[in-house]
Amino acid sequence: MYTKMLEIRRFEEKIGEEYGKGLVPGLVHLSIGQEGVAVGVCANLKDDDYAIGTHRGHGIAIAKGVPLDKLAAEILGKESGCCKGRGGSMRVAYINKGLLYSCPIVGTGLPLAVGVGLSIKLRRTNQVAVSFFGDGASNTGDFHEALNLAAIWKLPVIFVCENNMYAISVHIKKSTSVENISERARGYNIPGITVDGNDVIAIYNAAREAIQRARNGGGPTLIECKTYRTVGHGTTDPGVAYRSIEEIDEWKKKCPINRLRSYLIANRILSEESLQRIEGEVEARVKEAIKFAEESPYPSPDQVAEYVY
Amino acid sequence: MREITYVEALNEALREEMRRDERVIILGEDVQLGYSGRGGLFLVTAELMKEFGPERVRDTPISEDGFVGAAIGAAATGLKPVVEVMYADFLLCCMNQIVNVAAKLRYSTGGQLKVPLVIRAMIGQGRGVGSDHSQVPLAWFMNVPGLKVVAPATPYDAKGLLKSSIREECPIMFFESFLLYRTKGFVPTEEYTVPLGKADVKKEGTDVTIVAVSTMVPRALSAAEKLKELNINAEVVDPRTLVPLDKETIIKSVMKTNRLVVAESGVKTCGVGAEIASMVMEEAFDYLDAPIKRVAAPHIPAPAAPTLEQITIPNENDIIKAVRELFER
Question: In chain A, which residues have their Cβ closer than 8 Å to the Cβ of B109?
Fold first, then answer.
């Protein structure tokens, strides 16, 4: 889990740089600070379990096992990308590893996950579907319709809210009527829990329980992970107009990666040397992936009408 | 020769495809029983739950965005859902899922996913049900890349096109006409399909082409009968599918008759007729002896009062008038 979180962090830092160089078409939304959620949940999933991400989906993609080079190439709009450059940063999918799609329109992925759950149930496989979404999505009709459907049909769907408290610039207190989004699960008669979204071990344990319940026919769960993006909403947003530097610094201290690192050292699970080795390897892998993406060709214009139907 | 209704034809198509392919499931409001106790408000899904069970014929809560979104997710992961959204107006409640997801999923994933999904909806003018229960939104969906749009006018086409639609690997908007539901027509008992993208010349003629869509097909045919009295021999072309549009059949007909009227029951502005007329202008302008005429609804929401509603629905007289104007120039 430490390696995965670090991969996400280093990868997204590099993508930010690529964006600065003008190499990324469109919009990029980084998840720096939120790595624990995707990694904690996905560590429980097999390749053929499904995940559906969001516009802020690079971390989810990496946690679900999308190869870094294919992901980087996709973000740069290259033919070698996992969606052949047709999806871009916000629409990453890689079905070989069970990443079904990333839905950029807030809330839209939740009903999709319900349908995946229905398909799993009718095909009688033992898979699960995980839908990631932000706090903003929990106020959409899609959220409520999806939770209701998954609950009445008892589908193997885990709804994972990455609550970073801001929908672009709007603080959750202005947009949301409940203290904890997990309370909304009660309205649909399904379990709902809130966990520290920067504690990857807590997330792992919560997700494991929910996923086991789903696999055993126990139906859906809503897991709310309280976390924070220490960067802005998108790469053009410095992220400081609507929140204080003190608040950001406070959350930087709660970094999920540093937290796990200290835990590993304190409990003598990994030594400083082996952690440094891992960090060096991650650095090299990310560098390699970005290089692959930069050097890959763009899709050929004569292929523009492929994959419409 | 066996004659059955448009509804019975649709019902047979669903039953046969569900028997043929166990991935086919039905989702929608009131599809299991409805108030008849047999299935569906208009009986299109009659007796299907009895044969295939509640797993495959599923009543949903009233949450179009939710269950259409779910159908997309199910389609992308191994099922073939046929979704009933009742009135076509209700499609607006799930427009995001249809337009932003169903239509784009295959493209945006570089071909990794397919969405074999049929969304059935009914267009139902003339019942006094008012502004949000009477729309004919075919053109809205024609404007979305990634969707195919089907609008059958006869029981034969309804069955054959629905079977083909279910076998397609992409999202299909399948529009049924309430006014045609009880009409009867020849439907063979043996297996057949009608391919998407193939228009049908419903009546041959030499003097003017009337391209008629869905509910307008029988109106165009009866207009053509009356035009005979004026010594005008009209050809009636039913595109049957609007996306993909069978340009070839329409252009061939216009090259023969040199005149074109497009008749639809939806609103004229940016309508189906606007698209077909422009296509003919671009590809067969030199064959036209007169400007193209469009018969369509005015830019007015559907009123509830019968006296008002009737004048907003294009009928056979509107078609006759349009044709006559082409010859009176």
Answer: 83, 86-87, 91, 93, 95, 101, 307
Residue B61: per-residue pLDDT? 97
* SS3 call for A185: helix
How does pLDDT run across B302-323, given as a tens digit for each residue? 999 999 999 999 999 999 999 9
Label the pairing between strands B208-212 and B293-297: unpaired
Cβ distance of B63 and A148 shorter than 8 Å: yes
Its ipTM equals 0.95
Q: A303: which chain B residues are within 8 Å (Cβ-Cβ)? A: none
3-state per-residue secondary structure call for B79-146: CEEEEEEEEHHHHHHHHHHHHHHHCCHHHHCCCCCCCCCEEEEEECCCCCCCCCCCCCCHHHHHCCCC
Which residue has tokens 């809130």? A194
For residue A44, report the phi and psi dihedrals to the nearest 5 degrees.
Answer: -90, -5
pLDDT tens digits, one per residue of A7-54: 999 999 999 999 999 999 999 999 999 999 999 999 999 999 999 999
* Count of residues in chain A: 309
Can you tell me the distance from the alpha carbon of B177 to that of A142, in angstroms, rounded to the nearest whole number? Answer: 29
Residue A91, CA distances (Å) to A74, A100, B306 in order: 9, 10, 48
User: CA B129, CA B90: separation in Å to the nearest integer?
Assistant: 13
